[in-house]
Predict the 3D structure of the following.
Amino acid sequence: MAVAMTKTKDIKIIGINSSIHDAVFTVFDVETTGLSPDRNRMTEIGIVRIQGGEVLDEYESLMNPGQFIPPEITRLTGITNELVFDKPKFETLAPEILSFINGSVGGVVLTGHNVKFDYGFLNASLVRSGYNKLSYPSICTARLARRLSKSLPSKSLDSLRRHFGIHSRRKHRAIDDARATATILSHFIEQLVNEYEFETVDEIIGFQYKKIYEESKISARFKKLKVELQSVPKKPGIYYMMNKKEEIIYIGKAKNLKDRMGSYFYHNVSHSTKIKKLVRYVHKVGWETTGSELSALLAESRLIKSHKPRFNSAIKSYRKFPFIKIDVQRAYPRVFKVYEIIPDGAKYYGPFGSSYTVNALIERIKKLYKLRKCDDRILRPAKNKSACMYYEFHQCSAPCNLTVSAAEYKKEVHSVDKFLTTSGKGSAIGYLESEMSLEADLMNYEHASYLRDNITDLKKVLLNIELTNSIVELQNYIIKCGEDNNDGSWEIFLVVNGKIAKTFIIDENVSADEDKVNNIIEEINYMYFSGALFKDFVFSKAYHKFKIDEIDTLKIISNWVYRNYTPTRVLKMTPKSHLGDVVKFVFRKP
C-alpha cells in the first residue's frame, strides 16, 4: 500500500487525457447517517479500482460515525449502532483511505452513482479531520445513464442493476454498491467506445455534462450532407468521411449505419474536440453495408491500415481479458498471467472476468504444484547449478539442476492442466468450494462471498474452455452473426486453422433456394468433412504461416467471440462433428 498522505501536503492531479482502455477508474460509495455532509457522518466506505472493465483492487471499511444511526437508515442499510460501536472513526481510517485512492498510477478519476453526494461526504469528512479536500475529476454513472439509457424510466442504481442483470448480495452497502457501479461504468464505457468512438477519459468526463440539441441554423454543407444521409440503410457496415479533395480522412464501423452517421451532422455540443474538428473538414460521405458487426470490424481494421486516415487512431485497442498461460511449447513450462493470446504454442486458460480469480488460482498452483518460478524464459538445466530457495521450501522440483526428469516435470504440468480444466475433487473448483464452505462455517462471510465470485468466474471459463482453446490453438469453428440485422439475414464465418476461409450471408431467399442451399452445404462439407482438416496440426509450427494482419484479424475475432459467445452463435468443429448437425446450426435463424 502506498504511503499515506500527510495533512499539509497538496494533492497533485495527474493528467487524464489518457486512453480509456489504459485508465484506472476509482469507483466508490459511502453509507451515512443522513443526507447532510455537514450535519451527518459516514458509517461505511467501499472503493473498487477497475481497468479495462476488470477489477484490480478493493477497499472497504465500516466506521464509527460518532452519532446515533436513525432507525430508517438501519432499515435501509442494515448498519446498526451496535455494528459500528467498536469500529475506528473516520480520522483514524483517513490515511489508508487516501493511500488507496491516491495509489492509482497515471491519475485518479473518482466515480460513483450520484457521485456528488458521495464526494461531498468524503470531502467534508477529510476537512473535519484536518486534510485538504480532494479535487480529482469525477464521473457520475447516473449522469451517463440519463444520456445513454434514455429509455429506462428510472436511472437509479437498482434500476440499472436490473437492466444490466447485476446481482448483488446486499443493497445499500458500500462495497456492494461500488461493485455494481463499477460494472455499470464498464457497460457505459464499452458503449461510448463502440458507438461514440471515444478514446480518452477526458471525453467521458465532458460527455456527462453536455446537453444534446439541434441548432435551428444549420450550415449549407450540413444540409447537403443530411440529404445524402437520407438514403443510408439501418444495417451494419463501414463508413467514410472525405474532405473537399475527396481524400478519406476517417473510417468507422457501425451496427446501424443510419443512426451512427446521422449522429455527426447536427450541432451537437456533446461531441468531443476530435469529432468537432473532424466534421469541420467533412464535405462528402460514403458507406458500405456488411453482413454483420463482425464483418464491419474486420473491414474497418483492414481499411484503416490501407488508407491511414488522418483522424483515425493507429489501431483501436480492445478490452483486455486476463488469461492463465502455461508455455507448454518449452521443455520446462511456467505458469503466469497474460493479457494477450498469440500463436506461440502455449496453452491459455480464460478469458477470466477478473484478475482476482487469476491471481488467486496462480497463487494456489504455486503452493500446490512444484513448477518452476524463476524468470528464465528458456531453462537450460545443468547438474552443477544450485537450486533456488523454492526447492528448499518444497515449492519447486528443481529442473534447473536435473533433480527432476523432463518426463516427471511433464506429469506435474499435466496435473496443473487437470486442476484448471476439471470440476471434481482436487480441481480448482473443488478446492475453492471447500475453502468457501470453511470460511462460511467460520462466519467469514465477506471472504466466502469473494471465493464464490472466484468460483463463478472459473465455471464460466470452464464452459468456454473448449471454445477458447479452439481459438488459441487455431483449430476450426463456425461463427453465426445476425441478431441485430433489421432485414432478418445472418452471416456465417467458416474458420479453418484460425483463418477465415469463407463467409456467406443467409436470408429467407437463400434458405428457399435449393441450389444455393446445396452449394453452401457442399462448401461446408469440403471445408470440414473431407478428412484432411483433422490430421495432426502442430500449433507451434504454424506461426510462420500467419502474417501480421492475420494475427490482428485473429485478435478481433477473439475479442468479438469473448463478448458475444453463446452456443447458438459459435460452433466448434471436431472429428466427431456431423454434417447434418452443422447444417441445422448454419440455417437456423438466430
About this structure: Residues 1-15, 470-474, 535-544 have pLDDT under 50 and may be disordered. The longest strand covers residues 42-51. The radius of gyration is 27 Å.
